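Figure 3 (text version): structure tokens given as input.
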């Protein structure tokens, strides 16, 4: 009798486990049309991937997912950006991870390059959506919308964006990345929120260091934007950062050409001496210290450089036509390099 009851109990537990596992492998919501975007980093373990999927509501149970992957000997998950649906089964999710293909193809893709300025970003959005450049710019500067973003991202967007002489409050706050949207009816608010949210995500990683250095998000993004605009592929961003910090400490103007172009509102291959006379709080040839705000968006490398500058005594740098950057300590050394590499007197450098 006892053995019979034990057998019945074991059988019941087995059936219960089967039902639970079968349910855990089924879609979270077969009728759902919601798209969940997840980035799988290179080298992520199955456990890490499973936790991300459960946290984002794409699977029901990370343990069942892990055991299933191990039991079936599923391998070769690929890093990348994925768009999953809650209507997908675990088998479909695994197949997507193995092929590197998202379950859904984006209706809208917005590639925002590093160093893009707010006006350029508005043009990219306009070119890939049904919105006009004017509509995008208006929303980007809408104080009510900015205040909504500030409540959502209080550590990122502060009253500093409304400080005196700021040209565009959210300049530098739209992170450079490729953004995908899976409906062609996406709102401007959603598009811009996603870009600001990405900046918030990146900045958040460096909060402890920012606190240690007593630097605000606005000041960090401002310095990072100057570094980004001066950087080339061959540039050591940390050394450029050191030049800027050394000049600030010495009470020297930063004298960086991109700020002159930003003040002029123009894009030119060279800055001429006459351009340096433009009256603007953004002209670092006339005004000491940082610009009132960022002059472009900065990638993570420039953000890190702004927080971790190299320890140097350099006060000058010169970009050559090959993209090489020459750093010097004195004006005399700088002028010698300038004479060697710059043939036209109108051409200036930082």
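Below: residues designed for each position.
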């Amino acid at each position: 009798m006892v053995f019979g009851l034990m057998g019945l109990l074991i059988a019941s537990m087995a059936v219960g486990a089967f039902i639970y596992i079968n349910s855990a492998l089924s879609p979270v919501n077969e009728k759902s049309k919601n798209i969940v975007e997840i980035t799988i980093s290179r080298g992520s373990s199955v456990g890490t991937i499973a936790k991300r999927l459960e946290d984002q509501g794409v699977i029901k149970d990370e343990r069942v997912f892990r055991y299933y992957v191990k039991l079936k000997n599923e391998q070769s998950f690929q890093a990348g950006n994925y768009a999953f649906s809650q209507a997908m089964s675990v088998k479909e999710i695994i197949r997507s991870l193995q092929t590197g293909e998202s379950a859904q193809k984006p209706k809208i893709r917005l590639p925002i390059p590093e160093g893009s300025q707010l006006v350029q970003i508005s043009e990219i959005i306009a070119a890939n959506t049904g919105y006009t450049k004017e509509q995008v710019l208006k929303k980007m500067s809408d104080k009510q919308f900015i205040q909504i973003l500030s409540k959502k991202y209080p550590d990122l967007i502060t009253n500093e964006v409304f400080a005196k002489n700021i040209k565009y409050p959210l300049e530098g706050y739209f992170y450079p990345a490729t953004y995908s949207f899976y409906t062609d009816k996406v709102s401007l608010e959603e598009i811009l929120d996603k870009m600001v949210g990405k900046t918030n995500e990146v900045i958040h990683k460096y909060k402890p260091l920012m606190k240690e250095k007593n630097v605000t998000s606005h000041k960090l993004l401002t310095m990072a934007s100057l570094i980004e605009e001066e950087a080339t592929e061959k540039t050591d961003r940390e050394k450029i950062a050191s030049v800027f910090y050394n000049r600030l400490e010495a009470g020297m103007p930063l004298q960086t050409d991109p700020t002159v172009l930003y003040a002029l509102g123009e894009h030119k291959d060279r800055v001429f001496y006459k351009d340096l006379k433009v009256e603007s709080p953004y002209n670092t040839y006339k005004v000491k210290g940082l610009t009132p705000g960022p002059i472009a968006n900065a990638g993570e490398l420039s953000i890190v450089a702004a927080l971790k500058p190299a320890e140097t005594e350099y006060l000058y740098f010169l970009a050559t036509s090959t993209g090489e950057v020459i750093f010097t300590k004195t004006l005399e050394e700088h002028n010698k390099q300038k004479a060697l590499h710059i043939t036209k007197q109108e051409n200036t450098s930082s």
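Confidence is low (pLDDT under 50) at residues 344-350.
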